[in-house]
């Protein structure tokens, strides 16, 4: 049995590091989009409100910001894991990257819309707009994250 070369093991680890860096970069791009949407900056406050069991209106903005960047940075490695899984199922290449990106987008939107947003104390008439703006912001995130991780993966 031949041992796996150290370079391969290091490349796997470095892809996760690249995922964190790309996740933070994608979060900055997401912030740019969020700032231009009617309810775009509300999702971090919703998350803060859910975590602190307060209304998003009274939720600590600092908690929302920390959670937003922590989640953004850690979603990058989640995408790397999804990429490895897609590559195992579909082989390496653009199809696996696209499949992992679609799954990540569905997870991001689904988790916020099904788990986080319903736990907020916001009026029902705002939920649709907040959900839509989150979906647009998540799309911006994925449009930066996916190619950044894919590019880093080809170098590693």
* Largest β-sheet summary: none
Percent range for β-strand residues: under 5%
Radius of gyration: 17 Å
CATH architecture: Orthogonal Bundle
Stretches where pLDDT falls below 50 for ≥5 residues? Answer: none
Number of helices: 5
Q: What's the overall geometry?
A: elongated
Number of strands: 0
Tell me the span between the first and last alpha carbons.
Answer: 25 Å
Percent in helix: over 70%
Please provide the ordered H/E string of secondary-structure elements.
HHHHH
At a glance:
The protein contains 5 helices and no strands. It is mostly helical. It has a single domain, classed as Arp2/3 complex 21 kDa subunit ARPC3.
Give your account of this protein's structure.
The chain is built from five helices and no strands. It is mainly alpha-helical.
Topology:
Elements: H1 6-34, H2 42-52, H3 61-90, H4 94-116, H5 124-155
Helix pairs in contact: 1-3, 1-5, 2-3, 3-4, 4-5
């Amino acid at each position: 049995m031949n041992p796996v070369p150290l370079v391969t093991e290091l490349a796997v680890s470095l892809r996760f590091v690249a995922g964190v860096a790309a996740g933070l970069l994608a979060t900055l791009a997401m912030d740019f989009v969020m700032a231009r949407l009617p309810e775009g900056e509300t999702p971090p406050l919703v998350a803060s409100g859910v975590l602190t069991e307060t209304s998003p209106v009274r939720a600590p903005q600092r908690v929302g910001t920390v959670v937003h960047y922590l989640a953004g940075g850690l979603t990058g490695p989640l995408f790397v894991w999804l990429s490895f899984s897609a590559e195992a199922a579909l082989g390496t290449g653009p199809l696996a990257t696209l499949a992992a990106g679609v799954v990540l987008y569905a997870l991001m939107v689904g988790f916020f819309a099904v788990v986080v947003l319903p736990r907020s104390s916001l009026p029902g008439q705002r939920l649709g707009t907040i959900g839509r703006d989150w979906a647009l912001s998540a799309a911006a995130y994925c449009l930066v994250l996916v190619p950044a991780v894919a590019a880093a993966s080809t170098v590693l």
